[in-house]
Design goal:
This protein is 23% helix and 34% strand. The chain contains 4 helices and 12 strands; from the N terminus they run E-E-E-E-E-E-E-H-E-E-E-E-H-E-H-H. The protein has helices spanning 90-102, 163-174, 180-195, 216-227; strands at residues 4-6, 15-23, 29-37, 46-55, 58-69, 74-78, 81-83, 107-111, 115-116, 125-134, 153-159, 177-178. Strands 4, 5, 6, 7, 8, 9, 10, 11 and 12 form a 9-stranded mixed beta sheet that branches. The protein has a 3-stranded antiparallel beta sheet with strand order 1-2-3, with no helix packed on it. A hairpin with a 4-residue loop joins strand 5 and strand 6 (74-78). Helix 3 crosses helix 4 (216-227). The longest helix is centred in the last third of the chain and has 16 residues, at 180-195.
Length: 229
């Protein structure tokens, strides 16, 4: 489409405003307004973490965070996430952010392909890392997040098997919002359980997919298969 970026705003520390000049399929020149991160140092901007908390004697939990987001003026229920530093792998960034935001130490079991966050507004991209956290390990007995001064984060652990209803309940009780990526993943898990025949094999469900509504069930299958390993 012969895109050319112009008018980058250099007054922002983390973001830049752009006007993108491009030609559509009819050959007509158009302008698109975009807001992008200026911190990308690799093939993606950031990583999301879906962390399954496991114990021999308890049901599987999911670690999520509640974080105040100034643009919407409310707390938002989210997956732990963060930017990938220069020279850092997505896997290493996922474990670092998981430790910093939740206090848990874990291991990465799989990573999705590159996904967009809001392609109509921004070039921001990310990957989703699926992580295992052993709650029976001594390193996870007393998790202590290491937050920046600007991070107002509360760590929550929700039931893997009831993730969607618990998110909806929290939204109602706390007057907060749910991040769309977390909601789509929870919706996919819920729909998958409703649609999957009881005799369906779990081992064939190790698929990687984006966190769009259309792909939510496929992504959920990956996480369900991971849970039952």
């Amino acid at each position: 489409s012969n895109m050319a970026a112009r008018d980058r705003d250099k007054d922002f520390r983390w973001l830049a405003l752009r006007k993108i000049e491009y030609k559509d399929r009819r050959g007509q020149t158009r302008i698109w307004e975009s807001c992008d991160r200026v911190t990308r140092r690799g093939d993606v901007d950031g990583v999301l973490i879906f962390a399954c908390l496991r114990s021999k004697h308890k049901p599987v939990k999911v670690a999520i965070i509640s974080q105040f987001r100034p643009p919407v003026g409310k707390n938002v229920l989210e997956l732990p996430a963060g930017l990938v530093d220069e020279g850092e792998s997505v896997e290493r960034a996922a474990l670092r952010e998981l430790k910093e935001e939740t206090g848990y130490s874990g291991r990465v079991t799989s990573v999705t392909p590159i996904m967009t966050a809001d392609a109509g507004m921004s070039s921001v991209t990310m990957r989703l890392a699926i992580c295992d956290v052993d709650l029976d390990s001594v390193v996870n007995k007393h998790p202590a997040p290491a937050l920046d001064d600007t991070e107002l984060i509360t760590v929550l652990t929700l039931d893997y098997d009831h993730l969607l209803p618990q998110l909806v309940q929290l939204q109602s009780e706390q007057d907060c919002l749910i991040d769309s990526r977390l909601f789509h993943l929870a919706l996919g898990l819920e729909n998958r359980r409703a649609l999957m025949p009881k005799h369906e094999s779990m081992t064939s469900l190790a698929l990687l997919a984006g966190l769009a509504v259309a792909a939510a069930i496929v992504t959920a299958r990956l996480v369900v298969a991971h849970k039952l390993i």
